[in-house]
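One such given next:
>
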Amino acid sequence: QVQLVESGGGLVQAGGSLTLSCAASGRTFSSYFMGWFRQAPGKEREFVASIRWSAGSTYYAASVKGRFTISRDNAKNTVYLQMNSLKPEDTAVYYCAARLVADSEYNYWGKGTHVTVSS
């Protein structure tokens, strides 16, 4: 059974940095995409970034490109989201998710970690 556990959220001032972690277990993730999504209060969940585990290829939402970096550590089975130059509009619950490369939908989700960026 796939388990995804996020950590690293918190309160940070605008312009600051934060690194989120997603510990993944229950599978060998070489055939998976791992993604980060976020949901701000009163808004729909949105895509932030993803990484293809085996190839390391990465994808970003336009709103975070150049500020956020997604990466993975094979030995630790962990995916990271390094967030720099944070803005108040980055405030949200951040979720880690996983899907098989062949699937179109993410079907494994963590419980989320809160990120609050103060102005």
Notes: The mean pLDDT is 96.
